[in-house]
Amino acid sequence: MSKTIRLDHITKIEGHANLTLSIDGDSIRKCQLEAVEGSRYFEGLLKGRKCIEAPELTSRICGICSVVHTVCSIQAVENALGMKVSEQTKMLRELMVLGERIRSHAAHIYFLALPDYLGFESAIEMGATHKKEVLTALKLTKMGNELVTVIGGREMHPVSTQVGGMTKLPTQEQIDELRRRLQEAQSDAIYTAGIFSKIKYPQMQTEAEFFSLSDGMNYPVLIGDLVSQSNRFKKEEYQKYLEEYHEESSTSNFVVKKEKRYIVGAIARMNNNYRLLSKNAKKAVNDAKVKFPILNPFMNNFAQAVELVNTIDSAIDICRRLKLQEEPVQEMKFKKGRGIAAVEAPRGTLFHDYEVNDKGEITKANIITPTCQNLLSIQEDIRKYLPSIMKQGEKKIVLEIEKLIRSYDPCFSCSTHFLRVNWDRN
Amino acid sequence: MAEKKKPVVGFFDLTGCNGCLLSFLFNEDELLDLAKQVDIVNFRFFTEKKEDTHFDLVFVEGLVAANDDLERLKKLREKTDKLVAFGACACTGCVPAYRNFIDQSKYAYLVYEKAKEISDLPPQPIGDHIKVDFFIPGCPPDKKQIATFIKDILLGKRPYDYDKPVCFECRLNENRCLLDDKKMCFGPITRGGCNSVCTNGKFECWGCRGPTPDADIPLMIRLLEQKGFTKEHIKQRLRTFSGMPIEKPQNLKVVKPQKIKKKEKKPAKQPKIKPVKVSVKAKKKAVKAKPAKKASKSKNTAKKSAKKAKPKPKKQKAKKTAKKIVKKSRTKPKKTAKKIVKKAPKKVQKPKTAAKKAVKKSSSFFSIIKKKLKR
pLDDT tens across A151-183, in order? Predict the structure, then answer.
């Protein structure tokens, strides 16, 4: 008995993706995940543009993680021009990225993932009986939004952070107010971690490696080397270790590490940095009796919930340390160079890599988004998970697979802005 | 009973960044109340897709860049009473459509050799393919603006079409003029309604919301040239959001909004909302025909060379014409500017005779501008 399951335009994820499954009796003939979002060729658009314009353009890659694209792009340009920005600017940028992490995680785990586990079709339906959950989610997204708005100027595509510094600083009162609000929001985050520790996740173990940034001092956001359980390399060497390839039917690239798949995202960050979690976050982990490393990809949702607690703690810490001073935006001198930046986006490590000529124009750009790196793992984990649910009805199989895909929090808008870079040829 | 009166609303996205949908979601405080007033049948972040029902109001985010997008869009139009182009991508093409202006060689290396298997279309705003009832511009649209729009529609009011420049709001917000700081700010020619959010953060306006009805873009270019920017750089910037025609825009066609039917018992409404049946091919032909006929008559017509026609030669042509116009406006800028404004409505009519089909189809303001843009 063979059957084919097609999931077109999978919902409750960002962007568009299809999955084709072909099952023959007990064996899986085909399991293919395709990004079907139209190509946007962002790397091509960047060519010939002034490098200082890159952040504004690349933030349009994704609305959900526009802040992190902006910041990563700025850092890459600054690296290319050899600029160093002040501690204050770094802290403000970090705060903004943390804000985005809060809103992204809160929206994802509550609106996209939780309905699956509670047996609702959508968050709207869930709202009827689980009002507290929906309200908590809205409160947390609002908190994250406020962080981004106060520092970046608006909720999406932040305006006041530029290459060389901040064009406009928030006031000290605003930062203090944020700190107060964050302290209030902490209880919501802890409540969230509680909800997600009680969920019964399907059992499964992935074989992938977990990659994230890590600097050994703080929970990773903007800086650090790339680490996994068994590897460590500098971000500048990423091309030596990571390789992009393309599947015919997909508009997105797949990224692998030396032909081996790996996972980025909350689960990877936590596996590599669990010693650096804040007190509250550690308590949440202990309460849930979870042991590291977490190998179950479904548990990524739990990792995100714990990260919410941790992120709010980090943000409070930054607000406490911030003593704002007026600073001019640095003058820039264009010179030939290459800049690589790696930043932890909500969904995993994001790379921006620009080559700039002496007029300050970008001659070559390469961007690797988290979902590209996760694509193969998602596909292979579906393949691995399928046999255990094969005997169930088709509807149930589809739901379980969607659950797995969503637990990765993929963002197909991000992953499909390019098709292929011929590294092997050039 | 009350439930039946709720208008059926759908949020859809084509190729894009999902940012506009998110911008709607960021109305945290109003969201639950809004959700009570309408029946949200489709929202990717929330609910499973149900594309088969009839919609009273549909928001479409993103632009057409894959074949799949086009099919979905056309089907959607058939089932929808009022369709809203939601955000800059849907209205003008935004950053992804900037690709239309750049040399293919710049991104050719990104195209996989088996690209034929991938259904790739030139990126176009949705107004180029279907009839659009309302436009909500902005990258991203202001969240309050979205909430107000929905409220207006629910009240049966005509949504307010903001047509003052960004400078207007920027002044109200008591910002220092960024042009004085020698920044390339397009505030004077860009439609406001965004509460000048960028310039509040001391970041120059890039014109994401498209031009005001009376924007004098050649003058703006000249002004910025005096500030020391190169023309190439200015044009590059103007094209980023694909909504800024470098010459005079047409007067905005304000689409007459209609009240949402409170009774939903009229499925027979379909003929009105017929999707445009002209195929892309037909449009191409029509477009090709136009400039050839008109070129000799007036200099303005060359601009109409639509984007779909062979890109390279036309770009050059158009550039030349643009230069001519700029030169003219240098000698007597005010008069020429006014003339062009007066001529504007005529321009719309002319192509009708040349290619009726194409013009019927491109009913939206943006699509008319789009044609001029391709230079």
Answer: 999 888 999 999 999 999 999 999 999 999 999
What are A19's strand-pairing partners?
A7, A33
Q: Do A157 and B140 touch (CB under 8 A)?
A: yes
- A·B CB contacts under 8 A: 195
pLDDT in tens, B49-80: 566 788 899 999 988 887 778 888 998 899 89
The Cα of B76 is separated from the nearest Cα of chain A by a number of Å equal to 15
Cβ–Cβ of B49/A43 closer than 8 Å? no
pTM beyond cutoff 0.90: no
Q: Answer whether A40 sits within 8 Å of B114, measured CB to CB.
A: no
CA distance B374 to chain A (A): 16
One-character DSSP codes across B314-352: HHHHHHHHHHHHHHHHHHSHHHHHHHHHHHHHHHHHHHH
Q: Are A62 and A345 in contact (CB under 8 A)?
A: no
A383 neighbors A31 (Cβ within 8 angstroms): yes
Does B201 contact A138 at a Cβ distance shorter than 8 Å? no
* Interchain CB distance below 8 Å, A122 and B46: yes
Q: How far is the C-alpha of A254 from the C-alpha of A380, rounded, in Å?
A: 12
Distance from CA of B31 to the nearest CA of A (A): 9
Q: What is the pLDDT of residues B179-224, one digit of tens each?
A: 998 899 999 999 999 999 999 999 999 999 989 988 888 899 999 9
CB B243 within 8 A of CB B93: yes
Residue numbers of A between 212 and 251 with CB closer than 8 Å to B: 246, 248-249, 251
What tens digit of pLDDT does each residue of B281-312 get? 444 444 444 444 444 444 444 444 444 444 44
What is the SS3 assignment for A241? helix
Residue A115 contacts residue B45 (beta carbons within 8 Å) = no
In our burial notation (b when 16+ CB lie closer than 10 A, e otherwise), range B179-191 reads beeebbbbbbbbb
pLDDT at A1 over 70: no
Residues of B in contact with A159 (CB under 8 A): 197-198, 200-201, 203
- ipTM of the predicted structure? 0.85
The 8-class DSSP code of residue A394 comes to: H
Q: What domains lie within chain A, and their CATH numbers?
A: 2-39+388-425 (no CATH), 42-374 (1.10.645.10)
CB atoms within 10 A of CB A188: 20
- In this structure, are residues B44 and A15 in contact, taking their beta carbons and an 8 Å threshold? no
Q: Is the C-alpha dihedral spanning B62, B65, B69, B75 positive or negative?
A: positive
Nearest alpha-carbon partner for B316 in B298, B297, B296, B302? B302
Report whether B137 contacts B210 (CB < 8 A).
yes
Tell me the Cα Rg of chain A.
21
Helices (H), A108-171: 114-118, 123-129, 131-152
For testing contact with chain B, the best of A53, A96, A155, A402 (most B CBs within 10 A): A155
Q: Is A63 on the interface with B (CB under 8 A)?
A: yes
DSSP states of A326-339 as a string?
A: --PPPP-----EEE
Q: Which residues contact B353 (CB under 8 A, 6 or more apart)?
A: none
Chain B residues whose beta carbon lies within 8 Å of the beta carbon of residue A40: 15, 65, 95-96, 99, 123
Neighbours of A296 (CB within 10 A): 17
Residue among A49, A127, A156 whose CB faces B140 most closely: A156
Tokens for B46? 């929330």
CA distance A178 to A183: 9
- Chain A residues with CB under 8 Å of B17 CB are 60-64, 66, 413
At B59, list the tokens: 């928001």
Find chain B residues with C-beta within 8 A of A139's C-beta.
28
- Chain B within 8 Å of A140 (Cβ-Cβ)? no
H or E element that contains B129: none
Q: Check CB contact of A205 with chain B, cutoff 8 Å.
A: no
